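Hi R.,

As promised on Friday, here is the backbone we talked about, encoded as structure tokens. Could you run it through your design pipeline when you get a chance and send me back a sequence?
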């Protein structure tokens, strides 16, 4: 429908074999032909940000719906918007960091009032309290803003992942009525000790739970109808709903309305993927239904926008099953009495809550374990690793004392990675006066990036690793093999019928002169470039000699 509205610690040596990126192409050193580097979701560098807390490019939309009451610290709107994300894409911030996918918090219209969660009065700045799935919240921007964001992102080789909330509406407030009882339940509250006490229940108090299991036809809430009429789009919305249900044959049950509304963002804007919220609190079959409609919508968009299509990848969906230690537990999540494999129900990947624990291991244990699990042909799967997020109160480095190690472990591990906004600049995670997850959600520290030398040094490290990882699929999607224990050196390889990539990585190298064996990776006499120090070297007797002031070198074929 929207088209109608729009007009340290540890350091490394990385040695690259067989390809070098030039713009979006690479040159093979064996064939001297130009081969495009494939984008793999398994190797994606995904940047996750809170829309309201990243960058405020339009101060005219900072106040809407008379949201003027005083909130608890860090629990009100602060001005970040869709235009702010677009602005930073245009500035090259994301490309410089090696980002090829951006996930931002929901931007659909939020409840107009606020509520006290037990941590102080709060407005829906975070985007997870939906009032209308068919509109954008003006605090975040307009449909035109969103269209520009996706278009500009694609022009920069960046995919867009939106946040999808199907499980619940926003809380009931003095301005926001509860949805009809054939749409939502408000009890019992989830207890999380079995399938039945985790799925058909209310997640928390005053967060009405959508009856996603229902197949009963329901009418639209009268408040939503009145809203659409006031906004002059009732006839259009109803006509599109009629067409959707006629095409699909689905009953007019609550979940299918929401699936239609969310998949419209894909069909009309070319959204590349969804991060699905609160996955385990919805029947797994619903996610398969959702994925099916999103894939159809993505195919429709590609057919209508051939000049904007980035690649042949299918629509991407990654799920949040909170506190799921997937590497240890495997593909099936255990409710206690029932196990569910979400990969069999539409998901390409799952958020890996275990990685922050894994990062406490030594490098070889971390890297070899993840490579073995994720590359197992019989039982392997995709994961999205992270070390900081918006609602995890125990991140890997809450005090921001290990930003270099954080980058090294996250960006060199197998799997795709989630960089939480400010990871790359050591944005503070302990904000005085805040309660709960608000402390994780401060505004992006742009001033420090601009003026503080230490912040700039940290960012520079993340940029070098991020861009190198982006350009070399073997790092996240390849197979790991240790070459030597001391010095610790290993290789990553990734090979298909049409593409080959390999790297050699060494950690905790000494500053100054150093020699690294590359006999099995690079040909004798090959000229290599260290991207970290911007120097070149030549393979002699199966080794390379370098003399740099850094404990990290990134070598690739010239």
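Update: got your reply. Pasting your designed sequence below so it's all in one thread:
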């Amino acid at each position: 429908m929207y088209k109608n509205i729009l007009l340290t610690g540890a350091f490394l040596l990385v040695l690259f074999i067989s390809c070098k990126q030039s713009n979006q192409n690479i040159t093979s050193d064996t064939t001297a032909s130009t081969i495009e580097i494939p984008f793999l979701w398994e190797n994606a560098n995904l940047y996750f940000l809170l829309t309201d807390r990243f960058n405020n490019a339009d101060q005219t939309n900072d106040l809407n719906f008379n949201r003027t009451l005083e909130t608890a610290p860090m629990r009100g709107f602060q001005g970040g918007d869709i235009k702010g994300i677009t602005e930073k894409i245009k500035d090259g911030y994301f490309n410089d960091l090696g980002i090829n996918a951006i996930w931002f918090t929901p931007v659909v219209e939020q409840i107009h009032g606020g509520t006290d969660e037990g941590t102080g009065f709060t407005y829906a700045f975070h985007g997870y309290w939906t009032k209308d799935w068919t509109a954008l919240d003006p605090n975040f921007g307009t449909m035109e803003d969103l269209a520009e964001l996706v278009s500009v992102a694609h022009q920069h080789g960046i995919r867009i992942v939106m946040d999808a909330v199907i499980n619940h509406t926003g809380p009931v407030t003095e301005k926001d009525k509860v949805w009809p009882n054939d749409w939502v339940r408000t009890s019992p509250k989830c207890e999380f000790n079995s399938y039945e006490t985790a799925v058909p229940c209310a997640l928390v108090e005053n967060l009405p739970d959508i009856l996603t299991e229902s197949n009963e036809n329901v009418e639209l809430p009268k408040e939503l109808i009145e809203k659409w009429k006031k906004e002059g789009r009732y006839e259009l919305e109803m006509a599109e709903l009629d067409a959707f249900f006629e095409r699909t044959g689905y009953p007019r049950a609550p979940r299918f309305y929401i699936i239609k509304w969310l998949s419209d963002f894909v069909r009309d804007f070319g959204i590349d993927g969804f991060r699905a919220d609160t996955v385990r609190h919805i029947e797994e079959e619903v996610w398969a239904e959702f994925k099916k409609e999103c894939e159809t919508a993505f195919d429709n968009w590609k057919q209508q926008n051939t000049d904007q299509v980035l690649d042949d990848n299918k629509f991407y969906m990654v799920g949040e099953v909170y506190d799921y230690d997937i590497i240890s537990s495997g593909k099936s999540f255990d409710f206690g009495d029932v196990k569910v494999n979400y990969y069999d129900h539409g998901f390409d990947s799952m958020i890996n809550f275990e990685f922050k624990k894994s990062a406490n291991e030594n490098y070889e244990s971390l890297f070899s374990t993840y490579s073995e699990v994720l590359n197992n042909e019989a039982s392997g799967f995709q994961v999205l690793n992270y070390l900081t997020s918006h609602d995890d109160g125990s991140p890997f480095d809450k005090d921001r004392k290990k930003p270099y190690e954080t980058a090294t472990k996250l960006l060199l591990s197998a799997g795709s990675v989630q960089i939480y906004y400010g990871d790359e600049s050591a944005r503070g995670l302990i904000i005085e006066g805040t309660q709960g997850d608000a402390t994780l959600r401060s505004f992006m520290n742009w001033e420090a990036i601009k003026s503080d030398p230490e912040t700039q040094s940290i960012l520079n490290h993340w940029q070098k690793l991020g861009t190198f990882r982006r350009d070399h699929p073997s790092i996240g999607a390849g197979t790991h093999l240790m070459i030597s224990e001391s010095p610790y050196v290993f290789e990553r390889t990734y090979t298909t019928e049409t593409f080959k990539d390999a790297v050699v990585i060494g950690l905790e190298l000494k500053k100054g002169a150093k020699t690294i064996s590359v006999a099995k990776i690079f040909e004798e006499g090959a000229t290599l470039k260290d991207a970290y120090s911007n120097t070149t070297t030549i393979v002699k007797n199966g080794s390379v000699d370098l003399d740099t002031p850094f404990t990290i070198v990134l070598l690739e074929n010239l």
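One thing I noticed while checking it: Confidence is low (pLDDT under 50) at residues 3-33.

Thanks again,
M.
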